Amino acid sequence: MQVTDNQLKFIDQYLENSGIKYLDIRYEMTDHIATALEEKEGVFYDEFQAYMVKNKAELLSSAKKFSKAATIRAFKMLVKGLVKPQFYIVATILFTVALLLNQRGYNDAVFTGFTILYFLLCGVIFSSYVHMVVINKKPEWSGVNRFHYAAALTVYILFLAVKPQTIFTDDIYLFLYYAVIISFVVMIISSYLKLKKMYKLRFNE
Amino acid sequence: MKNSQLYKGSLTTIIMKLLEENGRMYGYEITQKVKSITKGELNITEGALYPALHKLEGEGLLDVEVEKVGNRLRKYYKLTEDGQKETVNRLAELEEFIKNMQTLVNPKINPDLQF
Q: What is the number of CB-based contacts under 8 A between chain A and chain B?
């Protein structure tokens, strides 16, 4: 039999209703199921039902494992970002500018600038994640969503757990801390955008 | 998968070997190829195949190409350069394992190991 567009939509909808929320996983599974059904001669809905009775548990288990693997990959990507040259370049530029301004007596301006930038960038990551999960609720690509989740969680923990003003009494170390953290957050945002672009290109969206 | 405990550890090597021979393949094609080569003796389930493929992709051993085939998108997997090197290592390891197993299960084949 040939699986029609409407039948493909039916498979996709069935998978979504079964809890498989990521588009890339559903695309792959829909193709797998459709290819298996196309080898059968019977009626689509009967064959689909029979296929699901036999394979649904395996498919759902596979989707769960995929989500878990995507989360681990996302955290690995975050860590990998720390060895990228861009991270060191941005950190060095920020720290150098801060030192130069500090030498000229603009200590307070540097501190205020760093604090605003830090809050702004963390806010972008955190609020965009909250927007995606709570308001938009649009299905995302597994890799992008898990990376976003990992980024928001890391930023949230850093934001809550580390109070730099109480740890560093010397301004130089405080500047260094902000330069490193801001570079890290910039790197996270840049990786997120690249990842999103990669998925869009891959799936022609 | 049949006798899953015995085959489980070799699944990624089986996938890599097939991709080495066939260039690029999609998930369903891999299951059917294994079934046909083993004359239906070995049946890779979706629950075993896709986590293995995604794990290899995550390790950078597989690359992905998505193509529109008919009315739907299809995800093809192929070996990366690292994947090609790793396939050689894993196949050598698997061959060594099979040899050792054969020696242990049937020691008469290897006279050196007889006491």
A: 67
